[in-house]
Fold each of these.
Amino acid sequence: MTSFTILIGLLGLGFGTGSCDPRDSIQGGFHVYLTWKSEDTSRTMTVLFIDAGRTMNTPVVRYDTEARGTEPALYRHEVKAESWDFEKTGVHVHSAELKDLTPGATYFFAAGDADVGFSAERKFRTIPNDSSPLRFVVGGDMDVNESVPQLLQHAAALEPQFALIGGDIARDNGKISNFPKWDMWLKYWGEKMLTPQGFTVPMVLAVGNHEVDGLFGTRAFAQAPFFIGLFKQNGEKTYFTRTFGADTVVHVLDTGHIFSHGGKQRDWLFGQLTKHVSTKNRFALYHIPLYPSHRDFNSMGSRKGRDQWLPLFDLFGLTAGFESHDHALKRTKMLQQGREVSAGGTVYFGDGAWGIHPRVLSAARPWYVASSSATRHFWVVDVNEGAQSRNSYRAIGMDGKVLDEYIAAP
């Protein structure tokens, strides 16, 4: 019996109705996690869950505004999940989009099947649909090494309302045989990304080079089976927009891994930036940096990003770009049209290392970099903070302490 077969057997052991602790439901690999399929994060939530070894005839998510503990039959609402599987693995993914939710509200839920059983109860909160302050964490280049759960625990301790992940997540390279990496990554996420108040943190993910198998020109699911198949944030399209409240929008982009920078994606980006031109906080999340901290400035991915997207970022005044790929901590100066400006420009934060071993940086920083170090970290961003409704960006390291901080003028 192979280790992969053993793993698949373990995945079927996590169902039950006897525990109130969501950590208990994933010890055998039964994973429950959250994202969004719709742009509106105030009135929807997508619950995903995995089963293997047992067949769910009617997978559902049951939910309520009141806790129901170990009694899933008491939930007042139920949504049937759509399901798909990974060929030859026995792994089934189920996805249920909860709609018409109340903004800024807490919901309790359990996922599963009446015959097989349900997960332990979890809870989430929808995003307020006004100008309330927001807090989120962002980073990329994670892997499944021992640093990841420690950093996730520090992130959850900050009570973020959501997480942005900039690619190279479990580093599966688009290979079905690498499912054990995702099994471990989702276990880490489910255990560690529970806030002190007990909320499960939803995630929004961008695709990176280690999500794909390199066979460009095939179907997206074939190129990036786990990135597409475990989340399906926008079907098989790897660029999309999510809005958070009245003042914040995030454009998630594909830096040439499945869709090219230009063409349809660039046209779409122009339309989205036009649509949200009056939104106060306009962010972009993508993998390969336009302004790299480690790689050559004119490396192909960075150059294509600057050629195709930078004119749009400058034209519409992007607030911040969240970049990864270079495995280092980086904050640029405020930039506009290839030069430093004192106002009206964009700051680019990066560059991955949310778990992966950091790369050595040159002693001579590029002219556009304000701060950088070879350090594992993630960023925590506060939007509409305080009386002045300003934004703050803090890099948090392995010990949970602040490594870098930037406070934007209101």
Note: Residues 179-192 form the longest helix (14 residues).
Amino acid sequence: MPKPKVAAVLTDRNILQKFDVVGSAILIGSVVQLLLALHYGGGKYPWNSATVIGLLSGFAAATILFVVWEYRAGENATIPLKMLTNRVVASASMVNIFLFGVTYIATYFIPIFFQSILGDSPMESGIHMLPSMFSSIFFTVISGMMGKAHIIPSA
């Protein structure tokens, strides 16, 4: 009978040594550049301006640097690349990206629709959004309880 693996005791020092500070900083920098480019593009600056193109180029370069850094960091990476080769994790990540993308788009544009098309005030627009927000909170709690009670099988 094989011996059980002994769990390593994680001290504060071990946790800090395993934390990928550089990878996290590169990831944050790349995402900030992408968000700034999307925010500025077509609004404050035209899409073909040097500012927007520079931000998008910086995002691409930082993303490439992040992938290289994560590859070199191995198991201590912010996002271990080995984890992404698991089909269940990769497909669940894609589902979450598309699902929450739609959710955030709806949460952003529906109040604009209420205000610009229906002529509601910002307060009325927020009140119209309350049923959606309350139902999201309710079903999030219910799904969490179902997962905790093992009603939903884990992958």
Note: Residues 87-116 form the longest helix (30 residues).
